[in-house]
């Protein structure tokens, strides 16, 4: 079993839909959880960061962590065509950047 | 503008040739990283440097080499020993080695034929 599992998609939704992106993990020591957004042929950019369990909201984006289920989610409300990108989850047991484990990424397409 | 630059954007090489990918940052970050991204795979860490004149192997360092002679520069050499060098290479930096947030460059797509 890989440390981080992420469905690669692709996921296609109409504009305005609520999108749910998910990752599961096996290492119970993971405490730092991140979501990166990567547009085609570009480098990833940090979208959301959560420490330990709970929810975090930033505009149309909500990140959820359920450590008991080893499951993290990113919700996008009122999705826009500009949200079309690949979303990568990343996580680590400590805060060091060298310890980040990335998921494979889910490709999202939002049609107008 | 502060950020990370990688050059070139696209690079083509013949098999058996070494090639060096450039990465420069003007963010005054201490830590820098090189990742490889293949279709259907997550980012995999090749090398990282926490401070000038020091670097460490990541998960897939075989066939690669790096140097960190200046704080702002972290070039990656893909040697002929790398079995499958064709990939998208991403450079990143963070303010210090303990920082979770990494800033990525635009990437270099290397094709070896």
The residue fraction in helices of chain B comes out at under 10%
SSE pattern of chain A? EEEEEEEEEEE
Largest sheet of chain A: 6 strands, mixed
Which residue ranges of chain A are poorly predicted, with pLDDT under 50 across at least 5 consecutive positions?
none
Query: Which protein chains are joined by the largest interface, and how many residues does each one contribute?
Result: A-B, 25 and 29 residues
Helix content of chain A: under 10%
Total strands of chain A: the figure is: 11
Helical stretch count of chain A?
0
Distance between the termini of chain B: 36 Å
According to DSSP, the number of beta strands of chain B is: 11
Strand content of chain A: over 45%
Structural class of chain A, by secondary structure, is mainly beta
Radius of gyration of chain A over all CA atoms, rounded: 13 Å
Characterize the overall form of chain B: globular
The average pLDDT of chain A is 92
Q: Would you tell me the overall average pLDDT of chain B?
A: 93
How does the major sheet of chain B shape up?
A: 7 strands, mixed
Quaternary form = heterodimer
Q: What is the general shape of chain A?
A: globular
Order of helices and strands of chain B: EEEEEEEEEEE
**How many whole angstroms does the radius of gyration of chain B measure?**
13 Å
Write structural notes for this entry.
The complex is a heterodimer of chains A (about 110) and B (about 110). Chain A is mainly β. Chain A has no helices and 11 strands. In chain A, the strands form 2 sheets. In chain A, strands 2, 4, 5, 9, 10 and 11 form a 6-stranded mixed sheet that branches. Chain A has a 5-stranded antiparallel sheet with strand order 1-3-8-7-6, with no helix packed on it. In chain A, a hairpin with a 4-residue loop joins strand 7 (about 60-65) and strand 8 (about 70-75). Chain B has about 110 residues and is an all-beta fold. In chain B, the strands form 2 sheets. In chain B, strands 2, 4, 5, 6, 9, 10 and 11 form a 7-stranded mixed sheet that branches. In chain B, strands 1-3-8-7 form a 4-stranded antiparallel sheet, with no helix packed on it. The mean pLDDT of chain B is about 95. Chains A and B meet through strand 5, strand 9 and strand 10 of A and strand 5, strand 9 and strand 10 of B.
């Amino acid at each position: 079993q890989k440390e981080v599992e992420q469905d690669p998609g692709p996921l296609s939704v109409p504009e305005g839909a609520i999108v749910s992106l998910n990752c599961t993990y096996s290492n119970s020591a993971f405490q730092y959880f991140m979501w990166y957004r990567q547009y085609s042929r570009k480098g990833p950019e940090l979208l959301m960061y959560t420490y330990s369990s709970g929810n975090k909201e930033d505009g149309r984006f909500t990140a959820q962590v359920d450590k008991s289920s080893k499951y993290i989610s990113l919700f996008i409300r009122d999705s826009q065509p500009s949200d079309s990108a690949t979303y990568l989850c990343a996580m680590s047991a400590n805060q060091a950047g060298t310890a980040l484990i990335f998921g494979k990424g889910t490709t999202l397409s939002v049609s107008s | 503008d502060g950020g990370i630059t990688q050059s070139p954007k696209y690079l083509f090489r013949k098999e058996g040739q070494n090639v060096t990918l450039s990465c420069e940052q003007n963010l005054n970050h201490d830590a820098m990283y090189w990742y490889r991204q293949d279709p259907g795979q997550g980012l995999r860490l090749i090398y990282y440097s926490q401070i000038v004149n020091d670097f460490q192997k990541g998960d897939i360092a075989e066939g690669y080499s790096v140097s960190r002679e200046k704080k702002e520069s972290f070039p990656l050499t893909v040697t002929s020993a790398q079995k499958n060098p064709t990939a998208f290479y991403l450079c990143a930096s963070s303010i210090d080695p303990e920082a979770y947030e990494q800033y990525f460059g635009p990437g270099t797509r290397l094709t070896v034929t």
